[in-house]
User: What shape does this take?
Amino acid sequence: MLAALSINWQTITDGVALGAIYALMAVGIGLVFGVLRLVNFAYGQLIMAGAFALALASQWNWPVWAGILLCFAVVLVLSLLMERLVFRPLRTQPPAVMLVATFAVAFLLQNIALLWFGALGKIAVSLASLNRPVTISGVDVRKITIVAVAVTVVCLLALVLLLERTSIGLHMRASSMDFSTARLLGVRANRVIAVAVLISGFLAATAAVLLTVQTPLVTSDFALSDTILVLAGVVLGGLNNLVPATLGGFAIGFASGLLGGALPSNQSQYIPTFLFVAVIVVLLLRPSGLFTRSGQAVERL
Assistant: This one.
């Protein structure tokens, strides 16, 4: 009985850790959607690029802090390039055009990584110490669980303060409600979008560090399945509002971690099936999202 209870709590803690990482990814995706009305399917490839940066820094025997700085630099530069070379020129085009463009960028980055690093990928071991457990009340809790939850809470609080207490946050919220009117009132569109993309990139780099701790082997499809699940979670929570989108990302991450610990290893490949069936059922019952109120105003951060 005690062993079963320990296993149950262990599964819950692992689910919380994955849910926290997915919540960070959901915030990054929801932020760009709030300003640009764009679902960025290349978000997972930004995380992959950051993970490869960590793996290379580990291979070069760089200090941990240097590897993390390289990860953030690579992701932020790629985010700015994506915004300048793809998002900005296509901003006035129909949403379908921008959506297809993000698909193209995603496959481009994935194939560049495949050609550069090969199919076997690289291994990042510099942060392996965060995967070691600490015992709390008889439950082995991995350090990455504590770090993931703490980092997620800090990032979300900082983002809320930015949106509520700063002028750029006010401009971002105004742009999310009505971009055209906001520009007429003096909001600098390029600046607002660039800041949103940068914040989204910062969160992607943070997620890259946390995911790399959990999965040190980095390949060209690193974080791809995670991004698909997070996108489903964002829709599940409520795509038009940042808080429900974040809760949706956490919920699907927690469910994924919970099922991963509860199911036998030979049945783990069925986890996405269970999750997507649940998403379909929830959306059939609540099309506006699980964490949004009926009739709640949409199109706001």
Remarks:
- DSSP finds eleven helices and four strands in the chain.
- The first helix runs from residue 2 to 36.
